[in-house]
Amino acid sequence: MEATKIKLILLITVLLFSCKEEEKVFKTDKKDYDRYLTSTPVKTTSKYFQLWDSKIKQDSLQTMGLANVAGEYNRFFQGTGDIKYLKMAERSLEKALEAAALGKAGYMRALARNYISQHRFREALELARSARKQGSGANATQALLFDVHMELGNYEEAHAYLDSIQNMSDFGYLIRLAKWNDHKGDLDTAIRFMEKAYDRAKMSNNRDLLLWSTTNLADFYGHAGRIENSYKLYLKALEIDPQNAYAKKGIAWIVYSHERNGEEALRIMDSIIQKHQSPEYDLLKAEIAEFMGNEVLKLQALDNFHKKVGNVDYGEMYNAHNVDFLIAMDVTEKALKLAKREVGNRPTPETYGLLAYSYLKKGQKEKALLLVKTHIDGKTYEPSTLSQAAEVYKANGENKKVQELKQELTGALYELGPVKEHQILSL
């Protein structure tokens, strides 16, 4: 009788615990974000822009006017994804730098950041070094050099520049410290520093800093499995900027990867694509369509991506995405050639991962394995790169390494998404 009572108590406890666990499963509510999906497109003019633009037309040597117009062009690019605005900002900054008698370092840094946006990292590095020789704004230049070296995979140099700007009360230092810890695979520490940066941004009353730190902290929370925290911050970002495509994409990812609601995720993505021209949104739409088993929609989205990146103004910006696209289309020779080009532009573990994966898909598994062991193993914590490495190890029969990576990757299934999940679980 006592044994029966104990079993009954245990059963009730398990059931109550299960109910509580079910209650904890977070769900989004379209009423939270629906109004942002119908927000009007970003205006690509302003009184501020027209004022400075008119001054430039009167006197093409007005460097301050050129710099301000470049800032507005950059804002238009962020809002619309239209590459022409980034290129117009570049031309304005080049003209300002050419005309400037004083303050050249500031224009060099601004132009270098434009080049970073275009994935012209080596040119950005040259400009950053030139700015350092100018002497003014030393801390800003050191921060820029950290950013460029991180993009180029020069991690020791990057860390040295990070140490040179150490200041725990400075927003710029905190966000770079967060990025450094994320690179090292210490996500908890990265979040702690990004939270400090977010708090500083709230106190600064600077809309751009607040928006940037809000979306980036939302990303970090997502990577850590804190989905509800991530969602709430994306909503906060939309309160700041109702047209922010990046925050909308973040919500779409939660709906797709966490809730497995492909139809709703597609609805959000379509609202973004109507107003924002960035090609990567078409790639995400293609992935969601694949998850839903809609092959026609997937091919349409991939075709739209391919058409957009055909614009020569994009230059090197979408090389990595293009490698994935070409592999998906089984155009392995072109994928391999482009992956080699990308490694030449920025030799990071992530680009070597693309190259190794391209060799694997070309049937050269031994070359792929050598790259993984030399340039990836122990050098990155990026889930997508580790999943490529796992496939290379599997093809070469190194099952112990496969199982080690599989264990690590099962903790990153939300970040990788439902389509990748099947590949990971079948390793």
From TrEMBL:
UniProt xrefs under PROSITE patterns: PROKAR_LIPOPROTEIN, TPR
Pfam families per UniProt: TPR_19, TPR_8
InterPro entries: TPR-like_helical_dom_sf (IPR011990), TPR_rpt (IPR019734)
Keyword terms of this UniProt record: TPR repeat
TPR repeats (start-end): 211-244
Keyword Ligase on entry: no
Cell membrane keyword on record: no
Protein name, entry field: Uncharacterized protein
Annotated organism of origin: Flagellimonas olearia
Lineage: Bacteria, Pseudomonadati, Bacteroidota, Flavobacteriia, Flavobacteriales
